[in-house]
Amino acid sequence: MAVLLLAEINDGTLSLDATSKAVTAAKDLGDVTLLAVGASAKAAAEEAAKIEGVAKVLVAEDDLYGHRLAEPVAALIVSLAGDYDHIAAPATTDAKNILPRVAALLDVMVLTDVTGVVDADTFERPIYAGNAVQTVKSKDAKKVLTIRTSTFDAAGEQSAAPVEDVAKADDPALSEWVKDKVAESDRPELTSAGIVVSGGRGVGSEENFAIVEKLADKLGAAVGASRAAVDSGFAPNDWQVGQTGKVVAPDLYIAVGISGAIQHLAGMKDSKVIVAINKDEEAPIFQVADYGLVGDLFDVVPELTEKL
Amino acid sequence: MKVLVPVKRVIDYNVKVRVKADGSGVDLANVKMSMNPFDEIAVEEAIRLKEAGTAEEVIVVSIGVKQAQETLRTGLAMGADRAILVTATDDVHNDIEPLTVAKILAKVIEEEEPGLVICGKQAIDNDLNATGQMLAALTGWAQATNANSLEIDGDHATVAREVDGGLQTIKVKLPAIVTTDLRLNEPRYASLPNIMKAKKKPLEEKTPEDYGVDAAPRLEVVKTSEPPERAAGEMVGSVDELVTKLKDKGVV
């Protein structure tokens, strides 16, 4: 059995955390060949070749793949698909854009956000915002899946596997990149941060979010937000933690003024230690928290920032 | 330009989902059903295109059980012009897979020749996030998923997409498939007069056989279970106590 796994590379930089965790999930399925795609992908490919469990790395380096548009990348994966039984990727927004297109081109179903590998045909994935877990068995000859990385550990290191170039595929020429608007930040990336401090509707305003950010900066943490906070305009959408946002599993997750709606819990309940600070002692967030503190966040959070 | 909007009937997003004790699925008996929230955003965006004079007609399509008629009537009450219901199953527990849905939609597209299809990015029941991308593959059209904004300019659409770390703006050739993210718009509520009017709007009924599509599933659901529960934690009385606990745990 052989697996083709799309490495997560953005602007030439390998997301080692996401790629390595996806390798952990995929290596029980067979020999893992990584595919490194980008306008600049060679250096990332060399780095990825050292992820334990990788048998080979294929590099498709071309301007065509510079912004990982779904149509050309899907065409490339389909051109390589013949040799593999499984086609996988970490469940990033890029891969979630590309892999269902690949699956339909191959006339197979796609399994997204896989949280468990039972056997080569059978997988677990959350449904209803994580309120249920479905075990599904695929009857398709090829399996196309995205892997929710927060549920797998990162793979170790090995001496570098061989790296080979592959030819680019035809350009479907359907879309073009215009621009990126990247949220500038010195903080760690939300999905791979060791500590995440998130604010909810209770924070009250965009200005008040500074309290949450100060605590995060003291801890060297990433900042997150609940959907309620994002919808209220307190925080940007790419901070959103939850089923409709990012799924995180840091060592420490501090929820500030977050009631704990089901969809938010689905995005953070795999965190190792959860702290909840809320003035409502009935808030559902306390049911998943390891440590709960009932109090006014405007008193508690600055005090915590000072004492840590 | 015609705009086609696929809509799905799902458990209302406010309802607490319960897994059936025998592991066969989620309990749908006497549960409030609504239009998938991301599809409401799609309907809203299509109606706005019509109000702006960019689109001439908005068609809503649903593929599933007969009861999806109610979901289509909601779309009509919001302002869509007509509806197509493809009854693919009699069993409310039978979720029609995105690949099948995309195949049927591709046939509907052949007949209707829309200039744009707007889908929700994912259905809040199976959370697959796949139908739009699969439909784009089957039609050979461009795809712009997770749209935060959409502008139509002649034979192109410019779409800002919500991606990890910010927004990516792309320009796609029309016809294309766009999928909606949360912040694209705020869907309107249907007014009572519009709900009454919607009852008289045309709703065409079809089956997968009419389109020559085999609706047999590719995935077998082995079981559905409750997610693992976290062990109950403890309440602390002060910030000092919390700091001590976190230090003891070695996480700060």
UniProtKB/TrEMBL annotation, chain A:
A Gene Ontology BP annotation from the UniProt entry: fatty acid beta-oxidation using acyl-CoA dehydrogenase
Required co-factors: FAD
Family matches, as Pfam families: ETF, ETF_alpha
Start and end residues of each Electron transfer flavoprotein alpha/beta-subunit N-terminal domain: 3-181
Single annotated GO MF: electron transfer activity
SUPFAM superfamilies: Adenine nucleotide alpha hydrolases-like (SSF52402), DHS-like NAD/FAD-binding domain (SSF52467)
Official protein name in the record: Electron transfer flavoprotein subunit alpha
Chain sites annotated for binding FAD: 201, 226-227, 240-244, 257-264, 278
InterPro entries, per the entry: DHS-like_NAD/FAD-binding_dom, ETF_a/b_N, ETF_a/FixB, ETF_alpha_N, ETF_asu_C, ETF_asu_C_CS, Rossmann-like_a/b/a_fold
Main function: The electron transfer flavoprotein serves as a specific electron acceptor for other dehydrogenases. It transfers the electrons to the main respiratory chain via ETF-ubiquinone oxidoreductase (ETF dehydrogenase).
Keywords of this entry: Electron transport, FAD, Flavoprotein, Transport
UniProt keyword Glycosyltransferase, yes or no: no
Cofactor: how and how many bound: Binds 1 FAD per dimer.
Flavoprotein listed as a keyword: yes
TrEMBL record, chain B:
A Pfam family of this chain: ETF
GO BP field: carboxylic acid catabolic process
Residue ranges the record marks as coiled coil: none
Necessary cofactors: AMP
SUPFAM superfamilies linked to this entry: Adenine nucleotide alpha hydrolases-like (SSF52402)
Start and end residues of each Electron transfer flavoprotein alpha/beta-subunit N-terminal domain: 23-215
Domain of life assignment: Bacteria
Gene Ontology terms for molecular function: electron transfer activity
InterPro entries: ET-Flavoprotein_bsu_CS (IPR000049), ETF_a/b_N (IPR014730), ETF_b (IPR012255), ETF_beta_N (IPR033948), Rossmann-like_a/b/a_fold (IPR014729)
Gene3D superfamilies: HUPs
Family the UniProt entry places it in: Belongs to the ETF beta-subunit/FixA family.
Protein function: The electron transfer flavoprotein serves as a specific electron acceptor for other dehydrogenases. It transfers the electrons to the main respiratory chain via ETF-ubiquinone oxidoreductase (ETF dehydrogenase).
Protein name (database record): Electron transfer flavoprotein subunit beta
Organism phylogeny: Bacteria, Pseudomonadati, Pseudomonadota, Alphaproteobacteria, Rhodobacterales
